[in-house]
What we know:
Distance between the termini: 58 Å
Structural class: mainly beta
Largest sheet: 4 strands, antiparallel
Radius of gyration: 17 Å
Mean pLDDT: 88
Amino acid sequence: MLWESFFSLGSKAPRIKPFHFSGELSIGFRTGVMCIVIDGDPPFEFEWLKDSLSLQEKSGVSIKSVDEFTSAMSIKNLNADSNGNYTCRVSNAAGWDEKTDVLNMKGDVLFLKK
């Protein structure tokens, strides 16, 4: 326990570069963003969230580790449920940082009758 406390005192908490969904996005398009740690000491733990809930890899959503400083999140087929607040949270022994961007598609959203 004492060793862990000493180690974390010498560590720097992560700092993340802001990310942004770019371009005019519509239903059926693809998009992706990268979460890049620009400062801090590894090892890092990456977590992606959508609307404050943990984002799980599922059909159409991919989360990949690029290297020890970078995580990529992509959506291969945007739909009405894709809109929301996407957050990358990175932590290490010394602390954490997070950045958020809003995915808000332009254009027609289809509503189906039941």
